[in-house]
Write a structure and sequence with these properties.
Two copies of one chain form a homodimer. Chain A is α/β, with parallel strands linked by helices. Chain A is built from 13 helices and 17 strands. Chain A has helices at 11-22, 79-86, 111-114, 171-178, 244-264, 281-290, 307-312, 326-333, 348-355, 379-387, 394-400, 416-431, 448-456; strands spanning 88-91, 129-134, 143-148, 159-169, 194-202, 214-218, 227-231, 235-237, 272-275, 297-301, 317-319, 338-343, 357-365, 391-393, 403-406, 439-444, 463-467. In chain A, strands 4, 5, 6, 7, 8, 16 and 17 form a seven-stranded mixed β-sheet that branches. In chain A, β12 (338-343), α9 and β13 form a beta-alpha-beta unit. In chain A, α1 (11-22) packs parallel to α10 (379-387). The longest helix of chain A is centred in the middle third of the chain and has 21 residues, at 244-264. Chain A is globular. The interface between A and B is large, with 51 and 51 residues.
């Protein structure tokens, strides 16, 4: 794990390494400009709220942050600075938060228990609103559960306000908390790129959403709070049969897997796919999506204990990367390699994936999880991952008939139509019963550290979620 | 043009440059191993021949060579050394061959005139068989028209022998003649990766071809001769309506364009495509294939004089790269860029294409025509192209949501099924009238230099072909 961590701001070191190995900034190193953020004043709860969760506990915790995600303008996130200024840092729970063994994860089956009863809706109109906030880059102690006074929802034109019922946790959140993520916003900020909830107010010009609608949201950041205002364009109506947990688990993972497999990977009948971290959120989505295409062979890496579940989820050949070299294992079954490698690892694993490709094969790199080896930034891991970073020339590709692709949902801001079209197809697949998000565990905001450990220590099978409740008022 | 050429064997220099900029040979620099070649003795014509062209002239000329192409084992090519040993170098035509102005190209409409009349079939059984042979790397003087004694066809198991009626000329032939092509066979050799003709003998175990069948051939090299023996698996039956010229113009260009657009580029309705050298063989094929998908916008580069024809061939926005920057021109119409860039140029143009990509866009590099600036190798062009060669890291791809792909039909040897499936689809499109190879000009073997100049000087619109006749016996 973290054999060499720095307590100082090694973001600079990270960026220096990046420049050193990625070359000078330029068209190839393009970064999206940070968006200007407007300020939205804190507001009390409105009495017309229909489906408020009753959870507004004052319990503290620690939370990570991320800024992946899709679509435009998120003035909803503008409350971040307010949060920083007004928040009462209720408690820090910092003692040992970084290394303590997590409490037992609640089972997915228990998720419904965590949902606040509707009877309580609107009963806590005067209670402060809680948010998870990143206050610095580092270990688990850098996330805080804070609260701000409630105020009436005041969505601007084209916006809506919702009560959040569930939020997704993504691997990028772990990287962002450590500061090893590009395009991080100024501190402090509220992370969370996806979630689901109930509309409690709509702004001017919003005609396709109304109070009471159940929606899921895909946004750059800011979902990890009880109430949030977002552009209506960033929301999608939930099918009647879909739970809030499923909705909070769908967007980031399934859009990512879908675009990698179909838009970049060009998955077709008869193809073979290597899915790393096959028991993670994207991995589980990929297994299910591969089943929607005839005669696709799926190899998936995961700990041995998860293999049975993987087989049920579409993985024909689970590989325990702890005890076997996945390259060897794939080649035993398919000596010519595979058609698509989904690579969330980065570093030397991208090259391994590239060398596993059949002619016309594609490796799609969509993460750098090798950067994250422990609760804090590990400079050795950074350096190793960067030095081993895959690089390829046009001539090498020409000689091998291969493709190398990158995917980062966070950099698809502005591609509203592209994303929306994929969501439409995903909802159709959901309604047909062809895909169904698997929930690993659901954690209240107070246990965000345990949620993060669940993911970082790769204990999860499927999605790790955060919910505002139920450990309220305790 | 060629400001700095070397007369010594600068293949070594070329390869040194390659190593310098491509890194050490290894998995990323994988090259297919040369195939062992069996020796097939020269043979007289068989009396049972049904559709022999009557052309077996002794006229000399100069010809280039190539070794692109698909599929397995080509023992037919084994005659190369025989050719070298037995050939009579009938004439050299070297004087001024490199720089003389080419004669007026025969028009495509005249192609049928060049076909030997069937009445003469079998009448020249004792005539020697002519072949175009590369005798060294360099200018036009390195190709010779040679002949060998005729002998009865003796196809081995799984092979068939055909009388060649037309052969395709490809840009890679120009590169091979100059020695700037990877995987060149030992000198001397007969080039030609595609052609069409009539089966005159079948070997043991060949049940799906018979004497008299009209077939087209895709092979690594060796088609530029009057009679050739090839594996039956490398042949495809021609539709009844297809001429030999169309058949000789179809395979390399249309398979290349198809795989780039559909297998790597993932062309879909609404996409936009930039096609370089849009009036060339692959470019013309791409224009027609793009029309088979709804609402595809095609940008194509070519000299202004070809623009009207390009518009008829599916290019909405022809761009004269002599007078305008194609990047600017594309951005005027489509500020966000395009979804697919087909890049046969290499060097700095690959990076330009990369930077023109929309999110999820793909640049497919399938050639290095920037290496070829004149009739002989140009070391400055080699160096410039190599130094400017596009290189990209996983992180850069991750940040931009883009893909970089390489395509080289010559390295798909062994991928019989992959290629065959594409040919089946192409023939269906041909039969539906959706694609039709456009023949630029048809040249007898004797005028191979003129044919090569036609292509190298980018005068062609569509395919440049070689035929054994009709300037026979003169």
């Amino acid at each position: 794990m973290s054999s060499c961590t720095l307590s100082s701001d090694d973001t600079l070191l990270f960026r220096a390494l990046q420049k050193l190995t990625c070359g000078t900034p330029g068209p190839l190193n393009r970064r999206a400009k940070p968006r200007p953020r407007s300020r939205v004043p804190p507001r009390p709860l409105e009495s017309t709220v229909r489906t408020l969760p009753d959870a507004r506990p004052a319990l503290p915790s620690c939370a990570p942050s991320v800024q992946l995600c899709a679509q435009v303008g998120n003035p909803a996130m503008s409350a971040e600075k307010e949060v920083a200024e007004l928040a009462t840092s209720v408690a820090a729970a910092e003692a040992g938060a970084g290394e303590d063994a997590p409490s037992q994860p609640p089972k997915a089956e228990a998720a419904s228990d965590l949902q606040p009863p509707k009877a309580s809706e609107g009963s806590a109109a005067a209670s402060p609103l809680r948010s998870l906030v990143i206050t610095g880059f580092g270990g688990y102690d850098k996330v805080k559960l804070q609260s701000r006074p409630a105020a009436p929802p005041a969505p601007g034109p084209g916006q809506l306000t919702l009560r959040v019922r569930a939020c997704g946790l993504n691997f990028a959140d772990l990287m962002a908390r450590q500061g090893v993520y590009d395009r991080l916003p100024p501190l402090p900020f509220t992370p969370g790129m996806e979630g689901a909830g109930v509309v409690i107010a709509v702004g001017e010009g919003v005609s396709d959403r109304k109070v009471g609608d159940r929606v899921m949201v895909l946004i750059r950041l800011g979902m990890w709070q009880e109430e949030v205002t977002v552009p209506s364009a960033n929301t999608f109506l939930m099918p009647d049969a879909m739970t809030f947990e499923e909705a909070a688990a769908l967007l980031v993972n399934y859009i990512t897997a879908y675009m990698i497999l179909f838009d970049l990977g060009n998955l077709r009948p008869g193809h073979s796919v290597l899915v790393h971290m096959a028991a993670g959120g994207v991995g589980m989505a990929a297994g299910q999506l591969c089943r929607t295409v005839e005669n696709v062979t799926v190899f998936g890496t995961a700990s041995a204990g998860k293999h049975e579940m993987l087989k049920e989820n579409g993985v024909m050949y689970p590989i325990d990367y702890h005890t076997a070299d996945y390259v060897d294992e794939v080649k035993k079954i398919s000596p010519k390699g595979v058609d698509i490698v989904m690579d969330p690892l980065g570093g030397s694993d991208t090259a391994k994936g590239y060398n596993l490709l059949k002619p016309l094969g594609k490796v799609v790199t969509y993460g750098m999880s090798n950067l994250v080896t422990g609760p804090k930034r590990n400079l050795m891991a950074l350096a190793r991952t960067w030095w081993n970073q895959f690089s390829v020339t046009a001539m090498q590709l020409l000689q091998t008939n291969r493709a190398v692709c990158g995917f980062n949902l966070g950099n698809l801001e502005g591609e509203v139509e592209l994303v929306r079209n994929v969501v439409v197809r995903l909802l159709a697949l959901y309604n047909q019963g062809q895909i169904k998000p698997r929930i690993d565990s659901v954690w209240p905001f107070e246990k965000v550290v345990d949620a993060m450990k669940q993911m970082q220590e790769k204990k999860n099978v499927g999605k790790v979620l955060l919910v505002p409740g139920p450990e309220k008022e305790n």
